[in-house]
Design brief:
Helix content is 34%, strand content 22%. It is an alpha+beta fold and 494 residues long. The protein has a domain of 237 residues: Nucleotidyltransferase, domain 5 (2-Layer Sandwich). The protein is globular.
Length: 494
C-alpha cells in the first residue's frame, strides 16, 4: 500500500496539534488540544512536558481517526515546535526533572545581565547571531541545573538530557536524542559557522556537553516512530517560525513572511551566508535539507500578539472567545486615543529589553472595552511595523507585499489595520497553517514523498489580500503616538 499522507506534529505554546497533508499539500485531517499555562511567579511561564506528550499522542490518534487512516498511511512524520522552551529529563526514567521553562519566561534576567556585564548584550552575537536575552535556552538550562539539587552533577555524568520541544518529542517517539539545526541555533550555545555546539559558550554559560543532543539537519530520517505512528519515519524538524518560512516556500534570498501566533515572527531568507543585524534583529538558521548547505535568515521576534487577545479574554473577560475580538474592535472606528503596549515579557525585537513592562496609555472617560480591544489589534500591527522597519534597514530590501500566515490572520480587521500601518499590501496564504505545512514538507522531502523544493513551491497560493487605506500623514501621527507609549513602557526598566 502506498502511503497517502505526511503527518505534521505542531507542538505550540498554547496547544499541540497534528495535521495530515496529502500529496498536493492540502489538509486531509487535523486534531488539536490545549495544555495548561503555568505561572508560578510574575514573569515565570512553565509547561508540563509529560502533559504535552500525552496530548501529542491524543491529537495524532485523533487526526488519523478523522482521516480513517492508520500508521501505514503515513509516509513520514515532521515535527515543528515552540522554540527556546527548555526541557531537562532523566535519561533512564524519561521523567522531566521540572516543568519546562517556556520561551516567554524571564526568570533568567539576572543571569543574562551578569553574562552581559563585561561586553554588553552583543557579547555572543558574533558566534551565535543572537543577543543576550532571557528568551534563549542556554541560560534556562543553567538556571535549572543550579536550582535543582544534584542536577549539575547528574548532567555532567550524562544522566540528564536537555532538549527543546522537538528534541523531547523525537526522543519519546524514536529513542534518539537529537535536535535540528534551527532549534539548536536558538540556544546561545551553537556556533553559526560550524553549526555545532561551541565549547567556549558551553563553559561560559555553564552547560555540560554530555546532556546536549546531536545536531542534525531539518530534513532526514531520525528514526522510526513507536506507538500510534508505529514504524512511520520521523524525518523532519523545524522550529515553528522556520517551518512557516519553509511552508510559505520562501526558498529564495529576499523572500520572507510574518506569522501571527502567540507572538509575531518575521523571517527573511538571506541565503547560505548569515547576515549580521545592526538594528536589533536575530541572525538564525532558516533550514538545512539533508547534506545541503544551511540557509540563513534574519528574524524579528515579538513576544506578545495572539497572547494579548488570550489575556483580554481570560484575565479581563472582555469577550467569551478569542474570535470575538474582531467584532468588538470593529464596533468603533478607532481606538479613541488609547494605546496598548503589551510588554508582558519585556519587549523583544528591535529593543531586547526584558525589563520593559506593559501599559495602556491615553485613557479618558470616553474609552470603552471596544476601544481597548481595537488598541490591542493596533498593538499587534505597530509591533510588526517596527520589526519590518528594522528588516528594511538591515536587508536593504522592501518587503512588499507582506506574506502572512498563522491563526490571527483569520481576523480580517487586524489584517486591514496591518496593511494600513505598513502602507503596503498584506497577502494571506491559502493554507494558514504553514507552520505544520513546513514541517510536513521537510519530512516529505527526506522520504521522497515530494521530489524537490520546486514541487513544494508550486503548491503555494494566496486566498486574500488587504490594501492600505490610511493616508500617510495620519499613519505618521499614529506611529509617533505608538513610539511615545513604547518609550513609557521602557522607562519602567530604567
Amino acid at each position: 500500500m502506498t502511503a497517502r499522507y505526511v503527518a505534521a506534529i505542531d507542538q505550540g505554546t498554547t496547544s499541540s496539534r497534528c495535521i495530515l497533508f496529502d500529496a498536493a499539500g492540502k489538509i486531509a485531517a487535523r486534531a488539536q488540544k490545549e495544555h495548561r499555562q503555568i505561572f508560578p511567579r510574575p514573569g515565570w511561564v512553565e509547561h508540563d512536558a509529560l502533559e504535552i506528550w500525552t496530548n501529542v499522542q491524543e491529537v495524532t490518534a485523533g487526526a488519523l481517526a478523522a482521516a480513517d487512516a492508520t500508521a501505514v498511511d503515513v509516509a513520514a512524520v515532521g515535527i515543528t515546535n515552540q522554540r527556546e522552551t527548555t526541557v531537562i529529563w532523566d535519561k533512564n526514567s524519561g521523567v522531566p526533572i521540572a516543568n519546562a521553562i517556556v520561551w516567554q519566561d524571564t526568570r533568567t534576567d539576572t543571569r543574562v545581565a551578569e553574562l552581559a556585564r563585561s561586553d554588553g548584550p552583543d557579547r555572543f552575537r558574533e558566534l551565535t547571531g543572537l543577543p543576550l536575552a532571557s528568551y534563549f535556552s542556554g541560560p534556562k538550562i543553567a538556571w535549572l541545573l543550579e536550582t535543582i539539587d544534584g542536577a549539575q552533577s547528574a548532567a555532567e555524568r550524562g544522566d540528564l538530557l536537555f532538549g527543546t520541544m522537538e528534541s523531547w518529542l523525537i526522543w519519546k517517539l524514536t529513542g534518539r536524542h537529537v535536535t535540528d539545526v534551527t532549534n539548536a541555533s536558538r540556544t546561545l550555545l551553537m556556533n553559526l559557522v560550524t553549526l555545532q555546539w561551541d565549547e567556549s559558550l558551553l563553559e561560559v554559560i555553564g552547560v555540560p556537553r554530555a546532556m546536549l543532543p546531536a545536531i542534525v539537519s531539518s530534513s532526514e530520517v531520525y528514526g522510526l516512530a513507536r506507538g500510534v505512528l508505529q514504524e512511520a519515519p520521523v524525518a523532519g524538524a523545524l522550529g515553528d517560525q522556520q517551518a512557516a518560512l519553509f511552508g510559505q516556500a520562501c526558498f529564495a534570498p529576499g523572500t520572507g513572511k510574518c506569522t501571527y501566533g502567540t507572538g509575531n515572527f518575521l523571517l527573511v531568507n538571506t541565503g547560505t551566508a548569515p547576515v549580521k543585524s545592526a538594528n536589533g534583529l536575530i541572525t538564525t538558521v532558516a533550514y538545512r535539507i539533508g547534506e545541503a548547505p544551511a540557509a540563513f535568515a534574519l528574524e524579528g521576534s515579538i513576544a506578545v500578539t495572539g497572547a494579548l487577545i488570550q489575556w483580554l479574554r481570560d484575565s479581563l473577560g472582555l469577550f467569551a472567545a478569542a474570535a470575538d475580538v474582531e467584532a468588538l474592535a470593529g464596533s468603533v472606528p478607532d481606538s479613541g486615543g488609547c494605546v496598548f503596549v503589551p510588554a508582558f515579557s519585556g519587549l523583544f525585537a528591535p529593543y531586547w529589553r526584558s525589563d520593559a513592562r506593559g501599559l495602556i496609555a491615553g485613557l479618558t472617560g470616553y474609552v470603552t472595552k471596544a476601544h481597548i480591544a481595537r488598541a490591542a489589534l493596533e498593538a499587534v500591527a505597530w509591533q510588526t511595523r517596527e520589526v519590518i522597519d528594522a528588516m528594511r534597514a538591515d536587508s536593504g530590501r522592501e518587503l512588499t507585499p507582506l506574506k502572512v500566515d498563522g491563526g490571527m490572520t483569520a481576523n480580517a480587521l487586524l489584517m486591514q489595520i496591518q496593511a494600513d500601518v505598513l502602507g503596503v499590501p498584506v497577502v494571506r496564504s491559502a493554507i494558514a497553517e504553514t507552520t505544520c505545512l513546513g514541517a510536513a514538507y521537510a519530512a516529505g522531502l527526506a522520504t521522497s514523498f515530494w521530489p524537490d523544493q520546486d514541487a513544494l513551491a508550486s503548491h503555494w497560493k494566496a486566498d486574500a489580500e488587504w490594501r492600505p487605506s490610511m493616508e500617510g500623514p495620519a499613519r505618521d501621527v499614529a506611529y509617533a503616538r505608538w513610539k511615545g507609549a513604547v518609550q513609557a513602557a521602557l522607562s519602567f526598566g530604567a
